[in-house]
Description:
- Two copies of one chain form a homodimer.
- By secondary structure, chain A is of the alpha+beta class.
- Helices cover 36% and strands 27% of the residues of chain A.
- In chain A, helix 2 crosses helix 6 (166-187).
- Strand 5 (90-95) of chain A pairs antiparallel with strand 5 (90-95) of chain B.
Amino acid sequence: xxxxxTPQQEDFSRWYLDVxxxxxxxxxxxxxxxxxxxxYGYELWEGxxxxxxxxxxxxxxxxxxxxxxxxxxxxxxxxEHVEGFAPELxxxxxxxxxxxxEPLVVRPTSETIIGHMYSRWVQSYRDLPILINQWANVVxxxxxxxxxxxxxxxLWQEGHTAHATAEEAMEETLRMLDVYADFAxxxxxxxVIKGVKSDREKFAGAVxxxxxxxxxxxxxxxxxxxxxxxxxxxARAFDITYLDENNEMRYCHTTSWGLSTRMVGAVVMAHxxxxxxxxxxxxAPIQAVIVPIWRDDAQRAAVLEMAxxxxxMLQGAGVRVHLDAREDQTPGFKYNxxxxxxxxxxxxxxxxxxxxDAVVLARRDRPGREGKTFGVPSAGVVEAVRALLDEVQxxxxxQATVAREANTHRVEDYDTFRQVLDEQGGFIRVHWAGTSExxxxxQDETRATLRCLPLDVPEGEGRCFLTGAKTxxxxxxxxxx
Amino acid sequence: xxxxxTPQQEDFSRWYLDVxxxxxxxxxxxxxxxxxxxxYGYELWEGxxxxxxxxxxxxxxxxxxxxxxxxxxxxxxxxEHVEGFAPELxxxxxxxxxxxxEPLVVRPTSETIIGHMYSRWVQSYRDLPILINQWANVVxxxxxxxxxxxxxxxLWQEGHTAHATAEEAMEETLRMLDVYADFAxxxxxxxVIKGVKSDREKFAGAVxxxxxxxxxxxxxxxxxxxxxxxxxxxARAFDITYLDENNEMRYCHTTSWGLSTRMVGAVVMAHxxxxxxxxxxxxAPIQAVIVPIWRDDAQRAAVLEMAxxxxxMLQGAGVRVHLDAREDQTPGFKYNxxxxxxxxxxxxxxxxxxxxDAVVLARRDRPGREGKTFGVPSAGVVEAVRALLDEVQxxxxxQATVAREANTHRVEDYDTFRQVLDEQGGFIRVHWAGTSExxxxxQDETRATLRCLPLDVPEGEGRCFLTGAKTxxxxxxxxxx
Lengths: 481, 481
């Protein structure tokens, strides 16, 4: 067990903060609620960014960049939107030494400024669809912050699209939800559940909000990405109109979708264990670390020579490999250190391995001797490491899926709901025909929120666990970050 | 000549704004001084970003991310720094609906907040050097703005490093200057001049500022990237100290270096002509555009089939290719359109080309028939396009170098200086032993500024053109953006 990391069972929140600190992912800054993303955490974000950006481009989107500052009056044009965001705004009132006539809001999200630009760019149906994404920082004045999960400033992408019809906009909304789910499952190895948000939980200004919900190792939920169908709400507020084939003026239907540095927190909490991080190979900044082992100078030379050779082979094959040749640390220390940092595969090379021209592979997802493969010939190390990385990737997804299923409970009445929530936690799946007021009451009484109405409902029809009404709708409740 | 673009000779400033608008690189936003970077402009920035990021990583740097907001008190700790930036600050005074106790500055640059973090991270000489870069947006309240060249908010990278000794920090400063020059010359095809800034022009808080200066097509200078040796100035202000091998406390020596979306403006103005953009192939979002030509449906099918085949071949080879299959535009319109957008190579495919299984290649940097190659067999199109892209890249650099030399004037007295500046413009190279006051006077009288003291001085010793004093220093003066 890693010395400076609180066991998960003892205090999951402390475990999380310990891992963030020890693995040097992020650090608090002197600006209240803002964190510094340190290089190892930022590399993880670069992996996330790369995996998403590739998918956005493959689905026809282009990146662009819109202003950080938004005139206060813009936010006020969409009534629900301003109501939702007003309490969270950071406001610039002084520029160039002078009081500003109109205060500028530091963007909490960019529907309004982008809506304004789209109203200029869209004239005819021929200009549609507009499919644009922005990588940016946004600011929301949060009272209680936690690194990656909730910070005053965070990094994200926000897609904003405009379409001729409701159908096309809804297709886009669901396409991007699928893109998020595909990324989460394949790259982050997190078996997210796709669903729609309740009216109470939806985005301020949306007609419908879709989400991918992930389960963390403590059974809590984490909303990991959202895709919103905005209907004509922003088109009406910002006059995004077009002339259709019959020369009639119509409002566009718009969407927006976002995924943020929260995903880094999701990766930490979905896969981590008491030793620290366990990173999925697709996203891991370092996929394989080489730890050389020697006792004397003669061994040292031979071992380092072979280690460098193996490093070069893996680098040449595109594996993100690091050779830990530190002189002032023991192999045992290095094992623990890289385990804590979640590196998926460790390659051990000692004098005996040099003699056999072979290496030892150890996988992060299986502790101890069971996770080791001995005598891997150095000539076959690239194939062996690649295969092992694939196995670790699949195994993390499998473990997270098994854990999610084991921690998902189906209940049929509110008493059981409360009991299961208190005693076992996790996701509670119920038939649901309640109102927003019912949701609020459940949250007050249990601290669980309605995470989503999952799109995939194998249950069929049943009775609402709260009201007893017949319904084909299912809801997932959980305590959530 | 492109219809909507003012000729350069008539009005270079209007030419620039016309090109930015017609090529859809950027657009003014409703926020004073802030622009929207449109997809084509952002793709150009992505190319710049990619070329730099690769070089930063190859020289041992990691990316990280620091807060957007900086406490006002931080800026005030380095006297020259706050003096330089105070007039340009945007200040957040309200957060979450409440007046803030201490106003937060929207970062104009991040030496202060990063210096604060480094003081936490550096304890011993073993922690050094720290080599970190940040990709971020920054805000400087500018009175007169121009897209890409000077905007209130801009995107950039800022490298910040801490070292044990002055020598190492100076090495880093010059290494990153070389990285910028290498990028500018190889990727952007701009033959920049490396030099050191005068005291009057150096960064607020630096000991020495180095620059790459580019010449635009109108002979004006554009500072395109800067690398600063900060000495112990920020280390003393933020207490960045370490224990050396002898257990003695020392101040770090720090550097910072930045390159921004200005570089997009540099590419536009260094290479553009009266037809519009001319993009260097390394950075061009579209390297080759295929324009199919047909008269009737039978021709259309055959031409489009071959065009798609050529597109697939080029795509497969990693060429950024676009097939312009628009039905409602003539080939002639498309030629002009893509010329205006600066695409380096055009591939024309008509019925005769289909019959010959060959294509026509046209290069953007040479107008008319002279720039065309006829009868390129489709089987060899990948090699031919690649070779042509290399040629265009080299040719743009060559043309810009020839233009720079032709527009660089060596003068020996102030009268000639003023006359040459007025009649010919361009860079004026002079021996220089003047003071900051002399510089200010020259600027007042001629609107030319001292761009840099170039590192490479083939001239040897001479007499200052202003004071007549003997000196081995050379300065470049020019009107500048």
